[in-house]
Amino acid sequence: MIVKPNEFQRRRRQLLNMMEVGDIAILPAAGVRMRNRDVEHRYRPDSDFFYLTGFPEPEAVAVFIPGRKHGEYILFCRERDPRMETWNGPRAGQDGACDIYGADDSFPIDDIDEILPGLMENTRRVFHSMGYNPEFDTHVINWVNALRDKARSGVHAPGEFVALDHLLHEMRLFKSAAEIRTMKQAAKISVNAHQRAMRACRPGMMEYELEAELLYAFTLGGSVAPAYNSIVGAGANGCILHYVDNRAEMQDGDLVLIDAGCELECYASDITRTFPVNGRFSKSQRALYELVLAAQEAAIEQVQPGKHWNDPHEAAVRVITEGLVELGILKGRLPTLIKNEAYKPYYMHRTGHWIGMDVHDVGDYKLGDEWRLLEKGMVMTVEPGLYIPAGTKGVAKKWWDIGIRIEDDVHVTKDGYDVLTGALQKTPDDIEALMTK
Ligand code: GLY
Ligand code: MN
Ligand code: MN
Description:
This protein is an alpha+beta fold. The chain folds into two domains: 5-172, 3-Layer(aba) Sandwich (Creatine Amidinohydrolase, Chain A, domain 1), CATH 3.40.350; 174-435, Creatinase/methionine aminopeptidase superfamily (Creatine Amidinohydrolase, Alpha-Beta Complex). The protein has 13 helices and 21 strands. Strands 6-5-4-1-7-8 form a six-stranded mixed beta sheet, with helices on both faces. Strands 9-12-13 form a three-stranded antiparallel beta sheet. Helix 8 runs antiparallel to helix 9 (207-220), helix 8 (177-200) crosses helix 13 and helix 10 (283-301) packs antiparallel against helix 11 (311-326). The chain is elongated. The two termini are 35 Å apart. The structure holds glycine and manganese (II) ion (2 copies).
């Protein structure tokens, strides 16, 4: 584990410092989700819950009460149960919650309805992330109502709700050194996986054969799951932005777009590369590829403290629009084309997103009405693309069925940026060289 117990403790302290005596924060673990009938999805903790607790089990609720005499951090979790542990593995239990995970106090989750209203008694504000888990929201409301019912005996129920997610997401936006180390390790595994797929690729193979190479490398690297469903789209499929079918045969002369990244210790990586199925770019593929690459490089140059969130996107849009004019795909004056978003039919998504514990990570992009400034510790993707499906009106046939995206994960440093996924080949020459090896 790269993020150590004292870092979880530091995060809890930071949250408690933002609260006042008279406040209570309540945060549930994710539930186990069913895939079909009695088959469960592999358990993945809720990112906010795990960020504060490092506690990996389901059926748990973390409670924070600043100034509480018997401890400010209370963890409700499952009791030890030797019979169940024989089937499903060890549980921390109440002792483990305190000794291993740093809780000040711990109670069985089955007792929460009896204990939690007592902990809420006479608090004024409840910090809770409303709306993500309707079933849990109902519990919170029931606990508050249990106190309202006791008003005649002089008990005060809390009267105010505060959005806990907003506080936590602002914290999560700024990555610590340990988080960056974890993300670098995730990036390294994903880089290796993409290289494996590039080396393996041959005309006549199926898209899922490349997906298998990716998953093999992720797993071998120590990742338990991809951070999102892998996209392996050849030819026309490269123009479908969320293509995850991955069932088609890859043809000689086509490009294949792979958007795939592993998750490591609850941290995501997110990489896209596009390369020729046969290992050699055609002239038109290379021309469009060079354009997306130039846009990506221009965008990455904008990832610096003091630039604002939209600067990389604006840089990418400018380069892509200019390039589309040079290639004869767009006609007109550059400022007008940009203003009218003439590039949008071919480049319809934004240039990036925050990345961290979630692939599309939390954190505001605007503060008030203004794009927020980039600051040290933020991590974002930079991922411009161009997509020209067959039949695109007004575009010459030589550009059809070319879908290209190039995506890297970029860390904002003290005085610039660090491309966490920078070890992966991305110039046409470097890609061709790797594929002939
Ligand atoms: N793979 C998801 C994304 O690039 O945003
Ligand atoms: Mn992305
Ligand atoms: Mn991606």
